[in-house]
Amino acid sequence: MGSFGWGEILIIAVVILVLFGTKKMPDAARSLGRSLRIFKSETKGLMNDDEAKPAPAPQQAAAPAQEIPAPQADGTTISGVPVSPEQAKKA
């Protein structure tokens, strides 16, 4: 099998142009360009996702359960979280 020369490439281009018509060729080229652009952006996004993903942290032993502090007398905290006096009355 030999390589294609200019003559063979020209004949193939003319045959494709005759088969598909002059109206469909620009639409097909536009669609191909959009597809390649989308493919390029998706592959670039996949590469960026791999680079941005941090290394998995080493697993540590589970910490013992912590006791939840009781609400203060003035009602400004519930379970260690600051709240308004109205919310403290509801709880």
TrEMBL record:
The chain crosses the membrane at residues 6-22. Keywords: Cell membrane, Membrane, Protein transport, Translocation, Transmembrane, Transmembrane helix, Transport. One of its GO terms (biological process) is protein transport by the Tat complex. Residues 45-91 are annotated as: Disordered. It is found in: Cell membrane. GO terms for molecular function: protein transmembrane transporter activity. The Tat system comprises two distinct complexes: a TatABC complex, containing multiple copies of TatA, TatB and TatC subunits, and a separate TatA complex, containing only TatA subunits. Substrates initially bind to the TatABC complex, which probably triggers association of the separate TatA complex to form the active translocon. Belongs to the TatA/E family. Part of the twin-arginine translocation (Tat) system that transports large folded proteins containing a characteristic twin-arginine motif in their signal peptide across membranes. TatA could form the protein-conducting channel of the Tat system. This is Sec-independent protein translocase protein TatA.
